[in-house]
Specification:
The chain has 141 residues and is an all-alpha fold. 75% of the residues lie in helices and 0% in strands. The radius of gyration is 21 Å and the shape is flat. The N and C termini lie close together (9 Å).
């Protein structure tokens, strides 16, 4: 996967796409600063974070590697499991009217069950799914 990549012709819209992707944060930052009166620090921070995310997305898409793909599977598995546990648990508590787990388990055990265990279990699940897919991301070349 990290070996020599087959050179293919890029579609005609490839260069305008990346130009637009790079110009959009600058334009939205200018709109936020001048028209919406967002502070300069927040505007620069938001644009910098957006460029960082664009760089990561470009790296993942253009220069895929087994290590980076494994990290992506592990992080997505861990965060996905945390999302499911927190929002699923909140939905069950609200829908059934049961007391929260802190009511009968205590604060520390509930914190471990709700905030630490899902990350660890999700990381193992993400790594397991990645191993089954040979750490290839969907729609990757």
């Amino acid at each position: 996967m990290s070996g020599v990549k087959a050179k293919g012709s890029k579609p005609w819209w490839w260069k305008p796409f990346w130009i637009a992707v790079l110009l959009m944060p600058i334009v939205s930052g200018g709109v936020g600063y001048f028209l919406l009166h967002v502070s300069l620090g927040r505007t620069v921070g938001g644009v910098a974070l957006t460029f960082l995310c664009i760089g990561i997305a470009y790296y993942i898409r253009i220069r895929p590697s087994m290590k980076v793909n494994r990290v992506i599977y592990i992080v997505l598995g861990a965060s996905g499991t945390e999302f499911i546990i927190l929002f699923g648990g909140a939905f069950i508590i609200l829908a059934t009217g049961w007391p929260p787990p802190t009511h009968y388990l205590g604060q520390w055990i509930s914190s471990i069950i709700l905030f630490i265990a899902p990350w660890i279990i999700g990381a193992f699940i993400g790594d397991w799914i990645g191993r089954r897919r040979n750490y290839r991301l969907p729609l990757s070349p």
